Amino acid sequence: MSVPEEAKFKKRLDEKRERIRAQCARKQNNDDSAKLDRERLVAEYPAETIALLDEYKKRIEEFLMQDDKNSLNLPPCNSYIRRLIYMTLKPEFAGKTQFISGRNENNEPVVTILKTIKTEEEVKLAEVDAEEEAMKEKLGFLHILRVISVSKTPLVFHAGELDLYLTMKHFFCDELPETLEEFKSITTATFPQIFDTLLMSRNEPLKSNFPEGNSLGEIFKKVQDQPFALNAANIHIADGYRDYKAFGGQVHEAGYDAWMTGVAFIHMMGYLNLVSKTKTEAKLTQSAVSKIFKNRYSISGMYDIHHISLDRSDNVPKRNHCFHLSFPATWRQHDIYELFRVCGRIRVMWIDDGSAFVAIEFFINNFAGWVLWVL
């Protein structure tokens, strides 16, 4: 369940509560106006009808004295008698019972009496409360994400660009915002501390420690050794959960990847704290050295932008050497290289079968204008 879905569900429940209160208030007014006292009953109704109601009253009184029974079905009766039951007996036992119209096992209309110290309104509102509690059970992973959000616990991932987008869309937004700035605002409001171990491993002072690459497996392996082990933290799994530390796991298994990412992050932050000679007892994620990585994550698909900053403005590189190219769907990459062969080395970023971006990697002043003239 997502936050918008939860909000809609809660709104429906609130509206349902208002309807119950209004209906019960109207019903109470109707009951009060239709209430039939003994004097009027004797004066207006036959003796056999009064005797029948007295018999039902006696049954209800005996029922209330029995501890082993919680409900009582009065004998099947027509709508005329049921109406009189509600007019005479229900007010008399108000606060002790609930009168419910229904049918017995033979499909005959009956009035069922339930023991209760609650009013009809309280019983129905309690049913709505039970619906809300059942809804909370369906929150699933949203409950975990909300705890992370409210506690401001760092949200840590490795190469989690797509994961972040899908998490925000699936749990917190009906649709992702149309602009990057809106996305940044919503995301930082939800998760004030985000760290990407891929971005951390690609930038100094950590980059030089990962010469073998920055895949999650390589990073996890490296942080077990020096220099990261110099300030290693004691990490353990809470009881009741799989102990990946003791038994390991498979790469790309969600739980094991999360474990590796968490371990890598803790060791990397410990190393940053060590090299920066931070002696404060403040949280590592609040230290000055961590701010260069905080709320930044690596992105793919752009050759000149490698990360996005969520809580600050990003530098937008010049694109005067980049061109949008449209061409027949039959073209292949060598056709584009042939078209731009006089321009030297280029980079092609495909959009679809008939268009692409082309970046000229080496250019001089006004070179882009010269290229347009040549083409």
From TrEMBL:
Q: What InterPro entries does UniProt report for this protein, alphabetically?
A: CAF1_poly(A)_ribonucleases, Nucleotide-bd_a/b_plait_sf, PolyA-riboNase_RNA-binding, R3H_dom_sf, RBD_domain_sf, RNase_CAF1, RNaseH-like_sf, RNaseH_sf
GO BP, one annotated term: siRNA 3'-end processing
Q: Recorded GO terms, molecular function?
A: metal ion binding; poly(A)-specific ribonuclease activity; RNA binding
Q: Which ranges carry the Poly(A)-specific ribonuclease RNA-binding domain?
A: 314-360
Pfam families the record matches: CAF1, RNA_bind
**Which branch of life, at top level?**
Eukaryota
Could you give one GO CC term from the UniProt record?
Answer: nucleus
Q: Which family does it belong to?
A: Belongs to the CAF1 family.
Q: What is this protein called?
A: Poly(A)-specific ribonuclease RNA-binding domain-containing protein
| Organism name | Oikopleura dioica
